[in-house]
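Could you join me in thinking about how sequence relates to backbone shape in a protein? We need material for that, and I hope you will provide a protein of your own picking. Label the sequence line and the structure token line clearly, so we can match residues to local backbone shapes. Would you write everything just below, so we can both look at the same thing?
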Amino acid sequence: MSTLETIITPKNVDLTNCDQEQIQYAGAIQPHGAMLVLREPELRILQASQNTGELLGIPAEELARTNLRRLFNEEQLDGIRVRLRLENLERAPIHVARTRLSGRDFDVLAHRYDQVLILELEARPEVADVPVLDLYSDLRGAISKLQATTGLQSFFDLAAQQVRAFTGFDRVMVYKFMEDHSGWVRSEALADGMQPYLGLHYPPSDIPAPARRLFSLTWVRHQPDLAYIPVPMLPENNPVTGGPLDMSYAFLRSVSIMYIDYLKNMGTRSSMVMTLLKNGELWGLIACHHHTGPKHVPYEVRVASEFLAHMVSMMMTAKEDLENYEYRTKLKSTQTKMVENVSRHADFVAGFLEDTPNLLDFVKADGAAISVNGRITPMGSTPSQTEIQQIVTWLSTAMDRHVFATDSLSAHFPEAAAFKDRCAGLLALRFSKANDDFLLWFRPEIIETVNWAGDPHKPVDISDDGQRLLPRTSFALWKETVRLKSSPWSDVELEAAKELRAALLELVLSRAEELGRLYADLERSHAELDSFAYVASHDLKEPLRGIHNYADILREDYADKLDEEGNAKLATMSRLSQRMNDLLDSLLEYSRLGQAKFAKTEVDLNGVVSEALDLLQFRIRTEAVTIRIPRLLPIIKGDQMRLVEVFTNLISNAIKYNDKAAKEVEIGFEEPALTGQPVLFVRDNGIGIREKHYDEIFQIFRRLHARDEFGGGSGAGLTITQKIIDRQGGRIWVKSNTGQGTTFYFTLGQDSASKVKA
């Protein structure tokens, strides 16, 4: 335990620290029973409550370190041993015996926890004979009536009435915990003349976190007389663990002094609380208060009440489902149709917004939006595009679940207060974490009045000495106007959102599998095409070479025997076969690139460009081209030989497609972005390219000019350049102004991060 936890005592506990109070380590019990802490299997008594002398006739000092035989005869002890052996005593106490000791009747309950066996001997109240058959009959009748109710409110009203009829308490409330842990009295049954608490809200501090935790562990807690004086344990600590005994599951555990004072301030003398769980989580309580005096509820009645609480917990979920059946069915139908619509569209956005039903036809909301790949599309009454982007940016880091819902977005994201009239409440569904893709629904602010039992902002009073904060004494009606909140999202809507996300993920996975198959087919076809192009171009070169050679031989040996037309046709045959050979060389080079392995080493681009310029030296000198490299180029990772080919092709094209008298070529790079990739470029002042041809120029054998214009060529240079860059994980693109010049930009992939040469 922390220092703060260990210093909290009945003398100093107040509302500043009760959320840290370790109430399971009470160190004391209520006086209507005795507690023994035993070591098994010898059943040696390690601890005893200090009231054993009064209740059991043997002082605690005498019981400590003795055996259970000191209390029970052999017949009683044998019966207890049998129950200890047969029952599951982990945590929840089990009734193991009813016995008479020192002239009084006791119910004996046992459970194992904190490495020991805890035995509770609860003295039976003087009027405790409850006919079991009558109790069973009453319980059966109560359950039948609860099952027959049709509305959820009627169900809770009847549950409160039946528990009150069972137990005889003055007041029985069905108390629901809200999302912020405040409480709301949903239903109430009370004696005549009592002030009703129905509909009142209570702040979270009224039932702090430690109390909520213990309520979630056990079904029934009972304090017969809140005016009791706690009975300490002897010795104070658990001898096995060396620390205070953990009484989380003990019926007799002494309750927090803050809780007792709180109940006393309400005029309560006796209480019993039963837990209501929904899907294993604490939903609320059935709280029973008695104001006219102490009230000890017999064990049998508590067991019946516990069973009734079990049944209410189970039935309320079914009742709620039945009450929401029509809305749930509508949501399911809408979800199915929306997913069908989306499956017919390549674009998710179109499927959600263009077809019927659309995103706004799903849950009840005034506005909705979809954010996919950074593109936001709203519909209905929504915040602005900029405001929605702010929400998406916040959700991408703040959202730790697949579905997020709140009826007060500004409580989580203060900036939302600026657009409360369109989005006070938000339901968000993330269906792609990688891209931060969301479906969003918006609800506007609804101003409402909440009735509190006292001022929730002043849940304390100050002690007479001014040193301690005490539970408040006023529970008078206090009205609060609540702003910045929308109507809440129901459990049905949250479940529907989760189901929609699951359906979308299934669709996405199905599409991914289909794309995977298509990609595999494409890769296989691409490999087959590369192989075919290689074989075809390689095998075609031999007969083509023969045709070209024979044409040349005929021109040399038979020129005098052929007329002018015949010689011209042979010359055309020779020229066309040579062009065909050039095309096959380009095709062969292109196909080799698909099968070749690319190196990934550090490459100094200054050396690469120098080598490319050496290869083009004759053309550069002949055409008086000015080459400008404004600054040193970076060192990157790539394949040096292939990069020489890239720069050779780009510089060659820059020279070739230039009609200026003073030809200029600039080679450089732009600073790396966040990715660390330099953007390299080759820029000229040549003829330029129209924007409509930007894609065409990268198609193999595609030329924008006549075959013999600008020096001819196969039309494969840019295609080969693009493939080299693609194979290294980069991309190439062009920007141009017709008649003024062209710039080719390219990158070389994620792992090509550069460093500038000093």
Residues 1-10, 13-17 have pLDDT under 50 and may be disordered.
